Protein backbone atom coordinates (compact mmCIF):
# COMPACT_ATOMS: atom_id res chain seq x y z
CA UNK A 1 0.00 0.00 0.00
CA UNK A 2 1.27 3.48 -0.82
CA UNK A 3 0.46 6.43 1.41
CA UNK A 4 -0.06 9.98 0.21
CA UNK A 5 3.57 10.89 1.02
CA UNK A 6 4.82 8.10 -1.24
CA UNK A 7 5.72 5.92 1.75
CA UNK A 8 4.91 2.33 1.03
CA UNK A 9 4.06 -0.22 3.69
CA UNK A 10 1.40 -2.67 4.73
CA UNK A 11 -1.38 -1.78 7.12
CA UNK A 12 -1.40 -5.27 8.56
CA UNK A 13 1.95 -6.58 9.77
CA UNK A 14 3.52 -9.55 8.04
CA UNK A 15 5.15 -11.71 10.70
CA UNK A 16 7.06 -13.74 8.16
CA UNK A 17 9.01 -10.64 7.04
CA UNK A 18 10.82 -10.63 10.38
CA UNK A 19 12.19 -14.11 9.95
CA UNK A 20 13.46 -13.54 6.45
CA UNK A 21 16.93 -11.95 6.46
CA UNK A 22 16.47 -10.99 2.80
CA UNK A 23 13.19 -9.19 3.48
CA UNK A 24 14.72 -7.41 6.48
CA UNK A 25 17.64 -6.20 4.37
CA UNK A 26 15.33 -5.14 1.57
CA UNK A 27 13.12 -3.00 3.83
CA UNK A 28 16.03 -1.57 5.80
CA UNK A 29 18.25 -0.24 3.01
CA UNK A 30 19.72 2.47 5.24
CA UNK A 31 20.89 -0.05 7.84
CA UNK A 32 18.85 1.03 10.88
CA UNK A 33 19.26 -2.43 12.44
CA UNK A 34 23.02 -2.17 12.06
CA UNK A 35 23.08 1.29 13.64
CA UNK A 36 20.90 0.09 16.51
CA UNK A 37 23.34 -2.76 17.10
CA UNK A 38 26.21 -0.28 17.43
CA UNK A 39 25.00 1.08 20.81
CA UNK A 40 27.76 -0.65 22.80
CA UNK A 41 30.42 0.54 20.36
CA UNK A 42 29.00 4.07 20.64
CA UNK A 43 29.53 4.00 24.41
CA UNK A 44 33.15 2.95 24.04
CA UNK A 45 33.95 5.37 21.21
CA UNK A 46 32.32 8.37 22.88
CA UNK A 47 34.07 7.63 26.18
CA UNK A 48 37.40 7.71 24.30
CA UNK A 49 36.47 10.95 22.51
CA UNK A 50 35.41 12.61 25.76
CA UNK A 51 38.70 11.57 27.35
CA UNK A 52 40.55 13.42 24.57
CA UNK A 53 38.51 16.61 24.96
CA UNK A 54 39.72 19.22 27.34
CA UNK A 55 36.97 18.79 29.92
CA UNK A 56 39.28 19.80 32.74
CA UNK A 57 38.65 23.41 31.64
CA UNK A 58 35.33 22.99 33.42
CA UNK A 59 36.79 22.23 36.81
CA UNK A 60 38.54 25.51 37.51
CA UNK A 61 35.46 27.43 38.51
CA UNK A 62 34.18 24.71 40.83
CA UNK A 63 30.72 23.33 41.23
CA UNK A 64 28.11 25.16 39.12
CA UNK A 65 24.83 26.55 40.41
CA UNK A 66 22.88 24.57 37.79
CA UNK A 67 23.45 22.54 34.64
CA UNK A 68 21.27 23.04 31.57
CA UNK A 69 21.34 20.42 28.81
CA UNK A 70 20.14 22.11 25.64
CA UNK A 71 19.02 20.18 22.56
CA UNK A 72 15.99 18.84 20.76
CA UNK A 73 14.78 15.32 19.93
CA UNK A 74 17.30 12.64 20.80
CA UNK A 75 19.85 15.28 21.82
CA UNK A 76 17.26 16.52 24.31
CA UNK A 77 16.81 12.99 25.72
CA UNK A 78 20.46 13.03 26.81
CA UNK A 79 19.46 15.64 29.39
CA UNK A 80 16.82 13.30 30.80
CA UNK A 81 19.41 10.53 30.99
CA UNK A 82 21.81 12.79 32.86
CA UNK A 83 19.08 13.93 35.26
CA UNK A 84 18.11 10.36 36.13
CA UNK A 85 21.65 9.02 36.39
CA UNK A 86 22.56 11.98 38.62
CA UNK A 87 19.53 11.04 40.72
CA UNK A 88 17.71 12.88 43.49
CA UNK A 89 20.89 13.32 45.50
CA UNK A 90 22.57 15.41 42.83
CA UNK A 91 23.87 18.55 44.57
CA UNK A 92 22.79 20.92 41.78
CA UNK A 93 19.72 21.12 39.54
CA UNK A 94 20.08 19.30 36.20
CA UNK A 95 17.68 20.86 33.72
CA UNK A 96 16.96 19.52 30.23
CA UNK A 97 15.96 22.44 27.99
CA UNK A 98 14.32 21.80 24.63
CA UNK A 99 13.42 25.20 23.28
CA UNK A 100 15.72 27.72 21.67
CA UNK A 101 18.33 29.49 23.78
CA UNK A 102 18.61 29.05 27.53
CA UNK A 103 16.28 29.83 30.44
CA UNK A 104 16.32 33.50 31.50
CA UNK A 105 18.08 32.86 34.80
CA UNK A 106 21.20 31.24 33.28
CA UNK A 107 24.31 33.22 34.08
CA UNK A 108 27.99 33.02 34.89
CA UNK A 109 27.47 30.57 37.76
CA UNK A 110 25.91 27.92 35.50
CA UNK A 111 27.01 25.31 32.97
CA UNK A 112 25.29 24.78 29.63
CA UNK A 113 25.81 21.53 27.73
CA UNK A 114 24.65 22.06 24.14
CA UNK A 115 23.97 18.82 22.26
CA UNK A 116 23.18 18.28 18.58
CA UNK A 117 23.97 15.17 16.52
CA UNK A 118 24.13 17.24 13.34
CA UNK A 119 25.79 20.13 15.12
CA UNK A 120 23.25 22.48 13.59
CA UNK A 121 19.93 22.36 15.40
CA UNK A 122 18.76 25.96 15.94
CA UNK A 123 17.91 25.07 19.56
CA UNK A 124 21.41 23.87 20.48
CA UNK A 125 23.15 26.62 18.48
CA UNK A 126 21.09 29.35 20.13
CA UNK A 127 21.79 27.80 23.54
CA UNK A 128 25.53 27.72 22.93
CA UNK A 129 25.53 31.34 21.72
CA UNK A 130 23.43 32.47 24.69
CA UNK A 131 25.64 30.61 27.18
CA UNK A 132 28.70 32.32 25.72
CA UNK A 133 27.06 35.75 25.78
CA UNK A 134 26.03 35.38 29.39
CA UNK A 135 29.39 34.13 30.54
CA UNK A 136 28.13 30.65 31.52
CA UNK A 137 30.52 27.74 31.16
CA UNK A 138 29.76 25.89 27.93
CA UNK A 139 30.37 22.32 26.75
CA UNK A 140 29.26 21.29 23.26
CA UNK A 141 28.64 17.79 21.93
CA UNK A 142 27.95 17.03 18.27
CA UNK A 143 29.21 16.45 14.75
CA UNK A 144 32.81 17.43 14.02
CA UNK A 145 33.36 20.46 11.77
CA UNK A 146 29.85 21.68 12.43
CA UNK A 147 28.41 25.07 13.29
CA UNK A 148 28.23 23.94 16.89
CA UNK A 149 31.96 23.26 16.89
CA UNK A 150 32.58 26.81 15.57
CA UNK A 151 30.48 28.34 18.34
CA UNK A 152 32.33 26.25 20.93
CA UNK A 153 35.68 27.32 19.51
CA UNK A 154 34.71 30.96 19.55
CA UNK A 155 33.67 30.55 23.19
CA UNK A 156 36.89 28.61 23.96
CA UNK A 157 34.67 25.88 25.31
CA UNK A 158 35.34 22.13 25.28
CA UNK A 159 33.82 20.40 22.25
CA UNK A 160 33.34 16.65 22.03
CA UNK A 161 33.18 15.62 18.37
CA UNK A 162 30.74 12.75 17.87
CA UNK A 163 31.07 11.32 14.36
CA UNK A 164 27.81 11.35 12.46
CA UNK A 165 27.34 7.82 11.25
CA UNK A 166 23.65 7.27 11.94
CA UNK A 167 20.48 9.34 12.26
CA UNK A 168 20.25 11.19 15.58
CA UNK A 169 17.77 8.72 17.08
CA UNK A 170 20.19 5.84 16.50
CA UNK A 171 22.99 7.85 18.16
CA UNK A 172 21.56 8.21 21.66
CA UNK A 173 24.49 6.43 23.32
CA UNK A 174 27.10 8.31 21.30
CA UNK A 175 25.58 11.62 22.43
CA UNK A 176 24.80 10.61 26.00
CA UNK A 177 28.21 9.42 27.16
CA UNK A 178 29.99 12.79 26.59
CA UNK A 179 27.18 14.55 28.48
CA UNK A 180 27.62 12.16 31.41
CA UNK A 181 31.38 12.52 31.39
CA UNK A 182 31.17 16.32 31.32
CA UNK A 183 28.86 16.11 34.35
CA UNK A 184 31.28 13.70 36.03
CA UNK A 185 34.08 16.23 35.58
CA UNK A 186 31.85 18.74 37.39
CA UNK A 187 31.40 16.26 40.25
CA UNK A 188 27.70 15.70 39.59
CA UNK A 189 27.54 12.00 38.68
CA UNK A 190 29.44 8.92 39.71
CA UNK A 191 29.89 7.09 36.43
CA UNK A 192 33.11 5.10 36.49
CA UNK A 193 35.01 3.22 33.82
CA UNK A 194 33.57 -0.12 34.96
CA UNK A 195 30.02 1.25 34.66
CA UNK A 196 30.74 2.33 31.09
CA UNK A 197 32.35 -0.99 30.19
CA UNK A 198 29.51 -3.01 31.72
CA UNK A 199 26.89 -0.84 30.02
CA UNK A 200 28.61 -1.30 26.66
CA UNK A 201 28.86 -5.05 27.24
CA UNK A 202 25.17 -5.29 28.09
CA UNK A 203 24.22 -3.31 24.97
CA UNK A 204 26.38 -5.70 22.92
CA UNK A 205 24.78 -8.75 24.51
CA UNK A 206 21.26 -7.40 23.93
CA UNK A 207 22.14 -6.57 20.32
CA UNK A 208 23.18 -10.17 19.92
CA UNK A 209 19.90 -11.49 21.38
CA UNK A 210 18.01 -9.11 19.07
CA UNK A 211 20.07 -9.80 15.94
CA UNK A 212 18.20 -10.12 12.64
CA UNK A 213 19.11 -13.80 12.25
CA UNK A 214 17.63 -14.75 15.66
CA UNK A 215 14.08 -15.88 14.95
CA UNK A 216 11.02 -14.36 16.58
CA UNK A 217 10.53 -17.07 19.19
CA UNK A 218 14.01 -16.51 20.67
CA UNK A 219 14.37 -12.82 19.78
CA UNK A 220 12.88 -10.57 22.50
CA UNK A 221 12.70 -7.52 20.21
CA UNK A 222 10.90 -9.35 17.39
CA UNK A 223 8.39 -10.83 19.82
CA UNK A 224 7.82 -7.44 21.50
CA UNK A 225 7.27 -5.89 18.05
CA UNK A 226 4.80 -8.59 17.02
CA UNK A 227 2.93 -8.20 20.31
CA UNK A 228 2.60 -4.46 19.70
CA UNK A 229 1.68 -4.79 16.02
CA UNK A 230 -1.79 -3.40 15.32
CA UNK A 231 -2.23 -2.04 18.85
CA UNK A 232 -1.89 1.32 20.52
CA UNK A 233 1.11 0.96 22.83
CA UNK A 234 1.11 2.42 26.32
CA UNK A 235 4.58 2.46 27.85
CA UNK A 236 4.88 3.24 31.53
CA UNK A 237 8.02 3.32 33.64
CA UNK A 238 7.87 2.25 37.29
CA UNK A 239 10.62 4.65 38.45
CA UNK A 240 12.13 7.92 37.19
CA UNK A 241 14.88 5.90 35.46
CA UNK A 242 12.41 3.51 33.84
CA UNK A 243 10.32 6.50 32.75
CA UNK A 244 13.26 7.88 30.74
CA UNK A 245 13.41 4.51 28.97
CA UNK A 246 9.61 4.62 28.47
CA UNK A 247 9.81 8.04 26.82
CA UNK A 248 12.68 6.85 24.66
CA UNK A 249 10.51 3.95 23.47
CA UNK A 250 7.87 6.55 22.60
CA UNK A 251 10.45 8.42 20.48
CA UNK A 252 11.53 5.35 18.53
CA UNK A 253 8.05 3.84 18.13
CA UNK A 254 6.87 7.13 16.65
CA UNK A 255 9.84 7.84 14.42
CA UNK A 256 10.82 4.34 13.27
CA UNK A 257 7.50 2.48 13.27
CA UNK A 258 5.20 5.52 13.05
CA UNK A 259 2.98 4.25 15.85
CA UNK A 260 1.04 6.58 18.13
CA UNK A 261 2.06 5.85 21.68
CA UNK A 262 1.29 6.96 25.21
CA UNK A 263 4.32 7.12 27.51
CA UNK A 264 4.93 8.25 31.04
CA UNK A 265 5.63 7.58 34.69
CA UNK A 266 3.48 4.97 36.34
CA UNK A 267 3.25 7.09 39.49
CA UNK A 268 1.56 9.84 37.54
CA UNK A 269 -0.42 7.51 35.27
CA UNK A 270 -1.88 5.89 38.36
CA UNK A 271 -3.60 9.19 39.19
CA UNK A 272 -5.03 9.70 35.72
CA UNK A 273 -4.12 7.91 32.55
CA UNK A 274 -4.55 4.47 34.00
CA UNK A 275 -8.21 5.14 33.11
CA UNK A 276 -7.24 4.40 29.48
CA UNK A 277 -7.38 0.71 30.41
CA UNK A 278 -11.17 1.05 30.80
CA UNK A 279 -11.73 2.91 27.53
CA UNK A 280 -12.79 2.13 23.98
CA UNK A 281 -9.38 0.74 23.08
CA UNK A 282 -9.03 -1.07 26.43
CA UNK A 283 -11.59 -2.86 28.61
CA UNK A 284 -14.50 -2.00 26.32
CA UNK A 285 -13.08 -3.67 23.22
CA UNK A 286 -11.61 -6.56 25.17
CA UNK A 287 -14.97 -7.09 26.91
CA UNK A 288 -16.56 -7.72 23.53
CA UNK A 289 -14.16 -10.56 22.87
CA UNK A 290 -15.73 -14.00 23.09
CA UNK A 291 -13.00 -16.18 24.57
CA UNK A 292 -14.47 -19.32 22.94
CA UNK A 293 -14.72 -17.83 19.47
CA UNK A 294 -12.24 -18.37 16.67
CA UNK A 295 -9.71 -15.53 17.04
CA UNK A 296 -9.91 -14.93 13.28
CA UNK A 297 -13.61 -14.20 13.54
CA UNK A 298 -13.62 -11.84 16.51
CA UNK A 299 -13.19 -8.44 14.97
CA UNK A 300 -9.52 -8.76 14.05
CA UNK A 301 -9.48 -5.10 13.04
CA UNK A 302 -10.46 -3.75 16.45
CA UNK A 303 -7.71 -1.52 17.78
CA UNK A 304 -6.58 -2.52 21.24
CA UNK A 305 -4.21 -1.16 23.80
CA UNK A 306 -1.06 -3.03 24.61
CA UNK A 307 0.73 -2.15 27.81
CA UNK A 308 4.51 -2.25 28.08
CA UNK A 309 5.65 -1.92 31.64
CA UNK A 310 9.29 -1.04 32.26
CA UNK A 311 10.16 -2.07 35.79
CA UNK A 312 13.22 -0.89 37.65
CA UNK A 313 13.03 -3.93 39.91
CA UNK A 314 14.98 -4.27 43.01
CA UNK A 315 18.28 -2.45 42.74
CA UNK A 316 17.70 1.17 43.62
CA UNK A 317 18.45 1.46 47.30
CA UNK A 318 15.56 3.05 49.15
CA UNK A 319 17.59 5.93 50.46
CA UNK A 320 18.77 6.94 47.01
CA UNK A 321 15.53 7.29 45.13
CA UNK A 322 12.55 9.62 44.97
CA UNK A 323 10.22 7.01 46.35
CA UNK A 324 10.76 3.84 48.34
CA UNK A 325 11.22 0.88 46.07
CA UNK A 326 8.34 -0.95 47.73
CA UNK A 327 5.89 1.74 46.58
CA UNK A 328 7.09 1.50 42.99
CA UNK A 329 6.94 -2.28 43.05
CA UNK A 330 3.42 -2.37 44.48
CA UNK A 331 2.24 0.11 41.89
CA UNK A 332 3.76 -1.94 39.07
CA UNK A 333 2.13 -5.12 40.41
CA UNK A 334 -1.16 -3.24 40.66
CA UNK A 335 -1.17 -2.02 37.06
CA UNK A 336 -0.33 -5.51 35.84
CA UNK A 337 -3.32 -6.83 37.80
CA UNK A 338 -5.55 -4.07 36.43
CA UNK A 339 -4.53 -4.84 32.85
CA UNK A 340 -5.09 -8.55 33.36
CA UNK A 341 -8.59 -8.02 34.80
CA UNK A 342 -9.53 -6.02 31.73
CA UNK A 343 -7.98 -8.40 29.22
CA UNK A 344 -5.38 -5.80 28.14
CA UNK A 345 -2.19 -7.61 27.26
CA UNK A 346 0.97 -6.49 29.01
CA UNK A 347 4.67 -6.98 28.33
CA UNK A 348 7.09 -6.45 31.20
CA UNK A 349 10.76 -5.60 30.89
CA UNK A 350 12.70 -5.60 34.14
CA UNK A 351 15.93 -3.65 34.55
CA UNK A 352 19.13 -5.54 35.19
CA UNK A 353 22.63 -4.44 36.08
CA UNK A 354 24.50 -2.83 38.91
CA UNK A 355 24.72 0.84 37.90
CA UNK A 356 21.99 3.29 36.93
CA UNK A 357 23.48 3.55 33.45
CA UNK A 358 23.52 -0.19 32.89
CA UNK A 359 19.96 -0.52 34.20
CA UNK A 360 18.87 2.17 31.78
CA UNK A 361 20.61 0.34 28.93
CA UNK A 362 18.85 -2.89 29.91
CA UNK A 363 15.49 -1.13 29.57
CA UNK A 364 16.29 0.59 26.28
CA UNK A 365 18.09 -1.99 24.15
CA UNK A 366 15.26 -4.42 23.37
CA UNK A 367 12.66 -1.65 22.83
CA UNK A 368 15.04 0.18 20.46
CA UNK A 369 15.25 -2.94 18.29
CA UNK A 370 11.52 -3.63 18.65
CA UNK A 371 10.69 -0.22 17.16
CA UNK A 372 12.77 -1.08 14.09
CA UNK A 373 11.30 -4.57 13.75
CA UNK A 374 7.79 -3.16 14.08
CA UNK A 375 8.51 -0.81 11.15
CA UNK A 376 9.90 -3.70 9.14
CA UNK A 377 6.92 -5.99 9.89
CA UNK A 378 4.79 -3.29 8.24
CA UNK A 379 7.18 -3.06 5.31
CA UNK A 380 8.17 0.48 6.35
CA UNK A 381 11.70 1.76 5.93
CA UNK A 382 12.54 2.79 9.53
CA UNK A 383 15.01 5.37 8.27
CA UNK A 384 12.68 7.35 6.00
CA UNK A 385 10.79 10.12 7.79
CA UNK A 386 9.22 12.25 5.03
CA UNK A 387 6.78 13.96 7.41
CA UNK A 388 9.65 15.28 9.56
CA UNK A 389 11.51 16.54 6.50
CA UNK A 390 8.35 18.10 5.08
CA UNK A 391 7.56 19.71 8.42
CA UNK A 392 11.02 21.30 8.51
CA UNK A 393 10.62 22.58 4.94
CA UNK A 394 7.19 24.05 5.60
CA UNK A 395 8.09 25.69 8.88
CA UNK A 396 11.49 27.12 7.94
CA UNK A 397 11.42 30.70 6.69
O1 LIG B 1 20.70 16.19 17.21
P1 LIG B 1 20.29 17.14 16.15
O2 LIG B 1 21.04 16.98 14.89
O3 LIG B 1 20.32 18.53 16.67
O4 LIG B 1 18.80 16.82 15.80
C1 LIG B 1 17.77 16.99 16.71
C2 LIG B 1 16.52 16.33 16.16
O5 LIG B 1 16.30 16.87 14.87
C3 LIG B 1 15.25 16.36 14.10
O6 LIG B 1 14.04 16.80 14.64
C4 LIG B 1 15.25 14.85 14.03
O7 LIG B 1 14.06 14.38 13.47
C5 LIG B 1 15.45 14.23 15.40
O8 LIG B 1 15.60 12.82 15.28
C6 LIG B 1 16.67 14.82 16.06
O9 LIG B 1 16.89 14.23 17.30
TrEMBL record:
This is SIS domain-containing protein. InterPro entries: Glu6P/Mann6P_isomerase_C, SIS_dom, SIS_dom_sf. It comes from the Bacteria. Transmembrane segments: none annotated. The lineage of its organism: Bacteria, Bacillati, Actinomycetota, Actinomycetes, Micromonosporales. Residues 1-31 are annotated as: Disordered. SUPFAM superfamilies: SIS domain. Keywords: Isomerase. Residues 55-191 form the SIS domain. Belongs to the PGI/PMI family. PROSITE patterns: SIS.
Amino acid sequence: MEGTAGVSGRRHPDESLLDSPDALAEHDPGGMLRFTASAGAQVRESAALAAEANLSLLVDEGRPRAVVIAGIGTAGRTGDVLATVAGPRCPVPVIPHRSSGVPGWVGAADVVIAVSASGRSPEALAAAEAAHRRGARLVAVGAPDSQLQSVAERARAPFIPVPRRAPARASLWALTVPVLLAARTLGLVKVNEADLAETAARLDADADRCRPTAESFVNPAKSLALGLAGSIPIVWGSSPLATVAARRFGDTLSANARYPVVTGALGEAGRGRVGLLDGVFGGLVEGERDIFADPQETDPDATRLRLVLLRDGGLNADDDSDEPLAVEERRADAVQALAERRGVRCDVITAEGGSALERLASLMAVPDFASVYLALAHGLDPMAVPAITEMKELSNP
